[in-house]
Design goal:
The protein has 124 residues and is mainly alpha-helical. The protein has 2 helices and 4 strands, in the order αββαββ. 40% of the residues lie in helices and 8% in strands.
């Protein structure tokens, strides 16, 4: 067998491997691109912004200051008096200033954003 025949046989033998490798790389590239586009579209459509809402459907607006709501409050037939459940602390500094820290789950003013480690005691 001549050197030329040997080289031709080697190229033919590796041709299927090269085509397989090219197909796998192309599949990975296009699959990753499709996955990236789908995750971006899903993330944009899923929520207007990250973050949770308090029980009243509102949260702190860091960009503009204050609070804003995403749900309208339920209509009420008679005016109600403020109860202990209406207590809200924007952060632990406010809770400490009011003398309420530490706040335990179930206490007025307790909220998940005050309990960083999730043990049921906020502002500890």
């Amino acid at each position: 067998m001549s050197l030329r025949e040997w080289g031709d046989r080697q190229r033919e033998g590796r041709g299927w491997l090269i085509r397989l490798e090219f197909g796998l790389v192309a599949t990975l590239v296009f699959g990753s691109l499709a996955l990236a586009v789908a995750s971006f579209v899903w993330a944009v459509a899923a929520s207007a912004h990250p973050g949770g809402l308090a029980a009243d459907g509102c949260h702190n607006d860091r960009k503009n200051g204050g609070r804003h709501c995403h749900r309208a409050p339920a209509p009420q037939s008679e005016p109600r008096q403020a109860s202990r459940a209406d207590v809200y602390y924007a952060n632990c500094t406010a809770a400490r200033a009011a003398g309420a820290a530490p706040i335990r789950r179930g206490d007025p003013g307790y909220a998940r954003h005050l309990d960083r480690d999730g043990d049921g005691v906020g502002c500890e």
